[in-house]
Amino acid sequence: MDDLSYGARNKRGDWAPNEPASTAPVFTFPPQPLKFLKWLPHYFLPYNVLFALSAVAWWYFVLPEPEVMKALAWGWVLKLFAANAIAVFLFFGAFELKLYILRSQGNRFKYNGKFPAEQCSKAFFFERQNVDNMLRTFGTGLPIWTGIEVFVLMAFANGWVPWLAFAQNPVYLFVLALLVPIIHETHFFLLHRAIHWGPLYKWVHSVHHNSVNPSPWSSLSMHPVEQFFYLGTMFWHLIIPSNPIMALYQLHFAGFGAIPGHVGFDKVELGEDTAVDSHAYIHYLHHKYFEVNYGDGLIPFDKWFGTFHDGSKEGEKQMQVRYEKKKARLNAKAEAKKSNETDRAGA
Ligand SMILES: [Zn+2]
Ligand SMILES: [Zn+2]
Question: Membrane-spanning regions, if any (predicted)?
Answer without folding.
Answer: 43-61, 73-95, 144-165, 171-191
